[in-house]
Amino acid sequence: MSHEQVSCLFCQVKNDSKLEHCTNCGMALTKHHPEGKARLSFFVKAFWGIVIFCVLMMYYLPR
Ligand SMILES: [Zn+2]
């Protein structure tokens, strides 16, 4: 089981899972595509950070 293979998301060519880039098209290989959720939650956090910042500014800025 040391020779896992992953198929490229772009051209469906099988690549060794140790490789970071597809041997056929050179695109980055994603094994379990874990980045989607991480990236989404990052944007959600950033969004709420901005919202909270704006609300704080509305209350703290003197008029
Ligand atoms: Zn490819």
List the helices and strands and how they pair.
Blueprint: E1 5-7, E2 14-16, H1 35-60
Antiparallel strand pairs: 1-2
What does this structure look like?
41% of the residues lie in helices and 10% in strands. The chain starts with a strand and ends with a helix. It has 1 helix and 2 strands. The longest helix is centred in the last third of the chain and has 26 residues, at 35-60. The protein is rod-shaped, with a radius of gyration of 21 Å. The protein is mainly alpha-helical and 63 residues long. It has one helix spanning 35-60, and strands at residues 5-7, 14-16. The structure holds zinc ion. Zinc ion is lined by residues 8, 10-11, 13, 22, 24-25, 27.
Summarize the structure.
The chain is mainly alpha-helical. The chain is 41% helix and 10% strand. The site of zinc ion (ZN) has 8 residues, from loops.
What share of residues is helical?
40-55%
Q: Per the principal axes of the C-alpha atoms, what is the gross shape? A: rod-shaped
Estimated structural class: mainly alpha
Number of contiguous helices: 1
Question: Secondary-structure element sequence?
Answer: EEH
Number of strands: 2
Kindly give the count of domains.
Answer: 1
Rg measurement, Å:
21 Å
Tell me the β content: 5-15%
